[in-house]
Amino acid sequence: MPGSLEPLDLGVQIPYHFRCPISLELMRDPVTVSTGQTYDRASIESWVATGNTTCPVTRVPLTDFTLIPNHTLRRLIQDWCVANRSFGVERIPTPKQPADPALVRSLLNQASSVSNPAASRLSALRRLRGLARDSDKNRSVISSLNAREILVNIVFSSTASESPELNHEALSLLVMFPLTESECVSVTSDVDRIALLSQLIFHSSIEVRVNSAALIEIVVAGTRCPELRAQVSNVDEIFEGVIGIMTNPIASYPRALKVGVKALFALCLVKQTRHKAVSAGAAEALIDRLADFEKCDAERALATIELLCRIPAGCSAFAAHALTVPLLVKIILKISDRATEYAAGALLSLCSSSEHSQRDAVAAGVVTQLLLLVQSDCTDRAKRKAQLLLKLLRDSWPEDSIGNSDDFVCSEVVIPSY
């Protein structure tokens, strides 16, 4: 085999032994397997994860799957990167080593033992949190060692009032992991645990408040029992706390808006308590922050708006906000197919309940948007909502649009279930 492969576009050849035999790319974290061959960590882990049990180069069975970091080769690669900086080569960073399961197990034991001093338990949780932040691999290792159950018990420990910092640290670590349904039920079925979350969501620390909202979203979304979900959403303070998080200045804690809208959407899936969201100020918060959401969060915010517009109180609250209708009209065909569908659904509800909203929609140019929508590649549900809305607004159309109106046949809307 050649000593070096084809030159890259940046005008420098990568030495053959610096390339991973699997990916043929420059190794960033070279590790050696039991056969003595060296690969990039990500490539060999992917090889093993797909069920392969042999060395890719030698085809010899791997006696074990321990990956030993090749520090010497990694330093040589880093030196080569520095030497070729003029060709646009960036130095690869020194990788952080994956968490040792034995260390993780020891830290979990240290954190969970009530006989240990609070400071010792807190230190263990902080080390675990640092490991979890480093990589998905570390989170997988931590999760596999019964960490979620341990963390749930610490968060809702009866000693919360004695060492709140310990509980807050466990909470910040717990929300990094998806919970099983049984773990979610263990929270939603316990009124004392719900009460604690409703208290934490008003904590003086924005981080504690956001983590509380994050756990509320996780357990509500992860519980299939409607009665248990309603038990959480029936707490007035929870809606107030979640909406308070959404109105937090973005610059001070960017994660707040994302977590807030996820929690609000999960809570609004419970039909019988949507009026509580409206009473807590959801309409104003959603409309005022609509322009600040990223794509996925904007879709979730619009879905929440459509859900709340299905109840009279929600329709009234959104109709009372001067920016609601113009913003929803503007969003059509701008963000995504889903966003368009939710915006059209919300407009349909608003215009069905208010002639004032109809006039606002027409003034904002909704007719043109809807005519474009029904001819687009958007979802069938979005088109059906647009057709019904066009029919509803027919008497309010501008004169120059009436001539085009006969091209569209209205059909019944199929309301999606959330």
From TrEMBL:
GO molecular-function term, one example from the UniProt record: ubiquitin protein ligase activity
Entries under InterPro entries matching the protein: ARM-like, ARM-type_fold, ARM_PUB, PUB22/23/24-like, RING-Ubox_PUB, Ubox_domain, Znf_RING/FYVE/PHD
Pfam families according to UniProt: ARM_PUB (PF25598), U-box (PF04564)
Catalytically driven reaction(s): S-ubiquitinyl-[E2 ubiquitin-conjugating enzyme]-L-cysteine + [acceptor protein]-L-lysine = [E2 ubiquitin-conjugating enzyme]-L-cysteine + N(6)-ubiquitinyl-[acceptor protein]-L-lysine
SMART domains, per the entry: Ubox
Domain spans labelled U-box: 13-87
Keyword Transferase: yes
Name the UniProt record assigns to this protein: U-box domain-containing protein
